[in-house]
Amino acid sequence: MKKGVVDLIRVKVQELHTGEGSGHDWEHIRRVWVTADKLAIEENADRDIVAIVTLLHDVDDTKLTGDDSSEVKLPTARRIMQECGLEEQEIENICTILKSIGFRKRLQGKTPANLEANIVSDADMLDATGAIGIARCFTYSGHKGRAIFIPEKMPMVDMNADQYVNANASAINHFFEKLVKLPNLMATSAGRKEAQRRHLFLLEYTRQFLNEVGAGQEWHDKLNELNHGRS
Ligand code: ADP
Ligand code: NI
User: Fold this and answer.
1) Contact yes or no for 160/107 (Cβ under 8 A)
2) How far is the CA of 89 from the centre of ligand 1 (A)?
3) Closest Cα to atom 8, ligand 1: which residue?
4) Conformational region of residue 65, where left means phi above 0, alpha means psi within -120 to 50, and beta covers everything else
5) Ligand 1 proximity of 98 Cβ (cutoff 6 Å)
6) 102 Cα–ligand 2 center, Å
7) What are the tens digits of pLDDT across the range 63-114?
8) What distances in angstroms separate CA 26 from CA 109, 122, 155, 219, one per listed residue?
9) Gap between the Cα atoms of 126 and 122, Å rounded
10) Ligand 1, atom 7: closest residue by C-alpha
């Protein structure tokens, strides 16, 4: 990898994500990068690859582009890498990794392609749970004009990828549909430990929330069922 490439990419990605309003702003990318870099050092992974994948992991996300094919074709990631002087083979390697990461892809049965992919995936999932994950979930939900909580709309816990994409329920349902599942998807040992810490806070928050809003016992049961043996 040519020297200085990571910094060239960072400038372009920062410009692209700054001010984004659905929970994928530049600060999300920066937090994931800090976490991913720590994991990369711990796991003896290629830090430049981890940095580039982290920087580019959301630039072609359908939620941001509105285009279903962007996550497969990766037009923005490819353009940025070309503009920053990466070689064709390096671009293909990064694209293979990018295409293997993401919760929706997990639901489709895909798993992160290699060590660097596992690291970025873990770091990205850590930013989706705990206190920050709760904040991002409400931000995304509000961005979509969705409710905080609808007592009659129980979560679907075993969704397939299509149902997940089309789910249009409350923010709290998203806790059940994705956030509580994240610890089981972690690949690195440091990532798994931190996910467990954040997960305990998420559970505590969710229980307090359900108590405050007077949610029925079925909500508590559902939470306990999902966390069987975990807390
Ligand atoms: P990430 O960037 O962490 O991979 P996503 O792109 O899937 O996450 O989503 C961005 C943020 O919005 C995450 O914190 C995620 O949990 C949240 N989010 C995604 N889908 C929903 C939804 N249907 N309802 C509420 N929050 C959501
Ligand atoms: Ni992300």
Assistant:
1) yes
2) 31
3) 128
4) alpha
5) no
6) 8
7) 888 898 999 999 999 999 999 999 999 999 999 999 999 998 998 899 999 9
8) 29, 18, 30, 34
9) 6
10) 103
